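Record type: ASSEMBLY
Status: queued
Input:
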Amino acid sequence: MSDCDGNFMDDFSALSSPRIREALAMLDQNENGRYPISETFPQTNVSPDPQSEQRSGGLRDRMAAKLGFDIPPLEIGRVSPSANLFSNPILVPSPILVISPGLSLSPFLQSPNMLSNSSSQIIPPCPLPNDAPPETVESSGDAHAMMIISNNNLPHQPIEVDLPPQGGSDDIPTENSGAPLVPSFDSEVVAEADVMNPISLESGSKDDNKDREYNQEEDKVEDHNVVVEPPSRKRKSLVNIKENMVSNIIGVTRRNKTQRVIIQVESEEDHPDDGFRWRKYGQKVVTGNANPRSYYRCTYTGCEVKKLVEKNVDNVKLVVATYDGIHEHVPPPERKSKSSTKNQSGSSISQDPSSQTLGLGMLPSSVSTSQLLPSPLAPQMDMMQYYMDGLSKLPSLPVNQNHGSVNRDDETMTDRVISDGTEVYKAIRD
DNA sequence: CGTATTTGACCCGCGC
DNA sequence: GCGCGGGTCAAATACG
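Status: finished
Output:
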């Protein structure tokens, strides 16, 4: 990629649709040269704001007129429960991004480009100070997922979105390249449960207290979009995710230089499809959850991404999937195999957008998402790309693009804050 | 027959 | 140092 060599627009033009580019251009105009998304809208509280909605509506209309298609209203109604997340002192209000049904989440999982790569573009090639607070990206939605992206223990690192690339670190950092990687990514595993459900924190616990202290301290230096990752060394079970919490969560954390994405999806299936092929290599019942946790490994050659899937202890319809690592490849094409015929049983392959799947990476790179999704969702899909593009300020979109480029830059990820749709709308509006 | 799943055993890190 | 629990391995089994 060319994140750091200044070829943003090259990638952009190659990977983005005109509409998306146009929308991004609008964002650019809005940003006043700085952080159009995250910086412009530090307020991440997702509680419905009538005025905001009204303004957003107007904006939506304008955007619709501008882009030439109807922009569906953001679905934030069900996000409200997640407000608990942000009311918890441990967490700072974070943006919520609604991912509507049918929207592909593969950008987050597949890629380097959507997450890690985005970071590579916004992170100065030089090592960042380790005193930046973790950042969190969260999205929640009526449909499927809420996302949390955080830097474990990383102090706030001002993401210079518009910072001119330096050193051409866009190159995939490899051991040979010696490209500077984001430091301190060997931070401990984040306590996902803490991130995802602060309510579940058990007060009185020594660890929790420590975590809370840590978080509070970190909160002092960050004003938004931050979830302070407690320095927990041991991964905590997700079983504490309560039903009254956000129903859909994606968390992205870092674990020893790998990215961890946590998704909670409402699904009847034990193993919601995400477009990638997985091979189950283990299953275990973990404490606190009668539902066994399944361990999957990406079957793609060379891909070491792992996936843990378990059902919410309180609501079996909620499936929590933890992706450990980032796919360095595009989702495999649909197979005419048994896997593809086992959709109803929760197999790893499902290309049916209407099925209860995450729809992760299911979209052929050469096909517009609009073509694959039910029409009502098509605009949302485009908007998803739009959001993601605007949010990450990425010139490239790994998903639905046929470049098939591989970005192995897991370590350059910044876990950049991604604003929720509301914030994006605000950004657009402004 | 090839591939995927199951499942008990084992390893290892963490907390006490 | 020990026990617990999470994660992984690998042989057996199932399936198409």
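Annotation: The CA atoms of residues 253 and 260 of chain A lie 5 Å apart.
Annotation: The beta strands of chain A are 147-149, 249-255, 258-266, 278-284, 293-298, 306-311, 318-324.
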